[in-house]
Amino acid sequence: MPNIKSAKKRMRSNAKKADVNTLVSSSMKTAIKKFEKEVKAGNKEEAGNCLNIALQRIDKAMGSGLVHKNKAARLKSRLIKSKNAME
Predict the structure, then answer these.
(1) How far apart are the C-alpha atoms of 34 and 40, rounded to whole Å?
(2) How many domains, in total, are found in the chain?
(3) CA nearest 53: which of 31, 24, 81?
(4) Residue 61 pLDDT more than 90?
(5) What is the number of other CB atoms lying within 10 angstroms of the CB of residue 43?
(6) The CATH number of the domain where 58 resides is what?
(7) Count of beta carbons in the 10 Å neighbourhood of residue 79
(8) Domain residues for 64?
(9) Could you count the other beta carbons within 10 Å of the beta carbon of residue 72?
(10) What is the pLDDT of residue 86?
(11) What is the mean pLDDT of the chain?
């Protein structure tokens, strides 16, 4: 345990940031998995909705620095490619 006041505050703020980061990254992964499930099932309408949500979640993770911009671009490209392959 830290003794210095600023170190104690840093521990508290790091814990809060870790919770938010976990929430953002897990929601991104969940959205991607949900989209892939819809593609596999062949539901074009639902896959389109899930694609939009997944792209938003990827952008949010990239904006907060959880995902590198190149990884975000790669993920988005793969999702869009699989959506286009359905049609």
Answers:
(1) 10
(2) 1
(3) 31
(4) yes
(5) 14
(6) 1.20.58.110
(7) 21
(8) 5-86
(9) 19
(10) 84
(11) 95
> What are 9-35's pLDDT values in tens digits?
999 999 999 999 999 999 999 999 999
> Strand, helix or coil at 34?
helix
- Asked if residue 62 lies in contact with residue 72, where contact means CB atoms within 8 angstroms, the answer is yes
User: What is the model's pTM?
Assistant: 0.88
What average pLDDT does the segment 61-72 reach? Answer: 96
DSSP tag of 66: S
18 near 37, Cβ under 8 Å? no
Neighbouring CB atoms inside 10 A of 59's CB total: 14
Give the end-to-end CA distance of the chain in Å, rounded to a whole number.
57
Cα–Cα dist 57/62, whole Å? 9
